[in-house]
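Protein modeling request. Please complete all fields; requests missing the sequence field cannot be processed.
Requester role: graduate student
Desired output: 3D structure, token encoding
Chains: 1
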Amino acid sequence: MQEPRGTKREEFEEVLKLVNYVFRESRNEPPNMGKWYPLIFNYNNLENMRIVLEDGKVVSHIGISESKIIVYGCTTKLGSIGSVCTHPEYRGRGLASLLLKDAMEKLDRDGVDIMLVSGGRGLYRRAGCVEAGIIYEFRVPQDKLKCFNFSDVELFPYKEEYLEEIVKLYQGEPVRFHRSLEDFRMILSTGAAMNRKAQTLLIRKDEKILGYLVSQLPTQEGERKVSYIAEYSGARGAILDAIGSLFDRYGVQELILSVPFCDEEFVYLCQRMGLDWTTKNIPGHTVKIINLPRLMERFCSYLQERLGKKEADLVKFAQEGDSFIIQLGKEQAVLDQKMFTQIVFGNKEPKVALKVSEKISKILRSIFPLPLVWPGLNYV
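Delivered output (380 residues):
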């Protein structure tokens, strides 16, 4: 067995064949992994298509997509993990664990502070990944439409001539991925979002583009046809005004909309409409902080805004093995890495009483939770 490494150019198709076999063909689905996940499967990302070879062939793979993210004006790096697989004939040998360890080491070398994994299997949890990132999941049944005060907005399918409008709308989001124009063009061409077929729809009124929705095509859930919104951006009121058109377009009986806790305006509008909601962690994902001191250094301006410069300068963060440390002057608290990750990004479960001083507890309450980017079109 060779040690984990990046994919060579001549191995690209072999890697794609493996992931298509595991995730698609073995389930009698079309081999579309390359088309649906271009952020991983492209020739500029070969070093992040990490593989293990045995018997002269690719038998295990983990995909990484590295992105800058922007949170309230602070920039850090996030590594999205997906397409983790081993050929059935080579399972049980610890290859996926080996690749995950290799991926985390590479992320740290590359200056990535947060790892977001598409999945919650034991492999990820043993590596320190946890559920985190609070969202409100709103459900809009068809009989609720009478409560909406719809305006005459137009909902129409995305065409590339509107690419710059989409980019401008997304740039206005305070918590987002940094997407180049080329990234946007690539992911909008897939016809998929968050592992389902999807359609990007623009919202227009009086010739002005006000927002967009990425809507997964309906699925049958019992006797109801349901559609999920995978991503949205733009004027929140206009997005709500467009919901009736989605029901007409897809003939669904229910629409499901996930709203991150930091989007307080949209949460307020949806609750004011009387929509049923539940709080959740980001569905289908787990999170690990790769490098806490570097992450918090990059959020220096955020800390100063929340605490004041004098106090922010006194707060220090450290990382030792599976422990995270916060220090305030002569006081310090050592916390389990998993627990601290859920403090940093929030967790829907009831808060656990922390054995820390009142001063450190106050600091933690003042600066956390931080918003975690919604995967949306960057889902891998």
